[in-house]
Amino acid sequence: MAFLHNRISRKELRQRLESETEPRLTASFYRYFAVSDPGKFRDDWYLALHGMRVLGRIYVAREGINAQISVPVSQWETLGEFVLGTPGLEGLLLNRAVQESQPSFWVLTIKVRKKIVADGIDDPSFDISQKGLYLDAQQFNQLTDDPGTIVVDMRNHYEYEVGHFEGALELPSDTFREQLPLAVELLFGKEERPLIMYCTGGIRCEKASAYLRHRGFQQVYHLEGGIIGYAHEVREKNLRNKFLGRNFVFDGRMGERIGEGIIARCHQCGAPCDRHVNCALDGCHLLFIQCESCARQYSGCCSLSCAASLRDPGSARKAGRRGHRIFHKAKQRLESLPKP
Questions:
Q1: Which of 24, 33, 105, 294 has its CA 20 to 30 A from that of 195?
Q2: Is 319 exposed, middle or buried (0-12, 13-18, 19+ CB in 10 A)?
């Protein structure tokens, strides 16, 4: 069924979306469960979701599903019935976005992968079902009031930089597979202390909690629904919000406001800013934080050299990133990382 894919250009799809008058809802969900035939699962879902005008990015593997989607309001209930009616997904949490400031996706992409989260784990004795205990927002707040509790952020360094929970330990890295052994290393000797892991929606910290238990940590918890679920619950129950700053999201919105204040700075001038952008030069496309003033000065680019290439209609514009990683801070942040 290789014909089940989008045949319309992204430009036309974007134009169609911009002409829509019906509001859309952005949501995410995941579950680790056995998928016997990921290819068939993928094609069945593509047919169903395409019919509902769903857009987004979904990964399917033998270990489960990971999805971030945008759906027309009129199709929300239909989508919920389809997803929750899929064997293995009963009772699944559909995590609604906190903010709908701008379109999140332009196209529907469903890919079959080896794993829904690349983890680098090759130990056959590792069991994802041996995960830590779930915590809701109220339980998270109560447990983190204890100074003996360690809170670990299982997201990438650029996500942590713009927003994180109070006192959370950062694991500076570019990939989840780098974080797992790093967490074991940095937490050595703390195996008996209460340990809470969190991420954006829950998928990474759920696997990480199982991995830490596998490596001998005894009191392991993870935040159910991640930062997104926490934000909804603190608002609904009028709880204290312990999240600082902005939550990075992997879609067109690039982030959503969760906590008060701006805790990051523009990578070019150092002014308070938590707006992630990609370098406007297609050959670079580097992700970095840029304020409005620097966006004007650098023409939306990460450097003057990229801005010059952007103005050049010749081959320089397609020259690529040239190997520069001027805002790659993971290693520097790791060197200065405080121990828990």
A1: 33
A2: middle
Task: Report the SS3 class of residue 308.
Answer: helix
Q: Assign 25 to helix, strand or coil.
A: strand
Q: Are 135 and 223 in contact (CB under 8 A)?
A: yes
Task: Report the distance separating Cα 164 and Cα 335, nearest Å.
Answer: 19
User: 190-240 pLDDT, tens per residue?
Assistant: 999 999 999 988 899 999 999 999 999 999 999 999 999 999 999 999 999
Query: Is the dihedral angle over the CA atoms 289, 292, 294, 297 positive or is it negative?
Result: positive
Domain residue ranges in the chain: 10-112
What pLDDT sits at residue 324? 46
Catalytic residue among 199, 205, 284, 302: 199
Contact 69, 95 (CB under 8 A): no
> Would you give the distance in Å from CA 236 to the centre of its chain?
23
CATH 3.30.70.100 fits 10-112, yes or no: yes
| Torsion, CA 176, CA 177, CA 181, CA 186, rounded to 10 | -20
* pLDDT band of 250, cuts 50, 70, 90: low
Contacts of 231 (CB under 8 A, 6+ apart): 98, 241, 243, 247, 258
Residue 336: how many other CB atoms lie within 10 Å: 7
Q: Determine whether 257 is exposed, middle or buried from the number of CB atoms within 10 Å of its CB (0-12, 13-18, 19+).
A: middle
Q: Enumerate residues 6+ apart whose C-beta is below 8 A from 166.
A: 144, 242, 243, 244
- Within 10 angstroms of residue 113's Cβ, the number of other Cβ atoms is 15
| H-assigned helices in 148-279 | 157-162, 176-186, 203-214, 226-237
Q: What is the DSSP string of 119-170?
A: -----TT--TTS--EEE-HHHHHHHHTSTT-EEEE-S-HHHHHHEEETTPEE
> CB–CB of 80/52 below 8 Å?
no
Whether residue 199 lies in the annotated active site: yes
Q: Count other Cβ atoms within 10 Å, centred on residue 156.
A: 22
Q: Quick check: 317 pLDDT over 70? A: no
Q: Of the given ranges (60-69, 101-110, 271-280, 307-316), which has the lowest mean pLDDT? A: 307-316
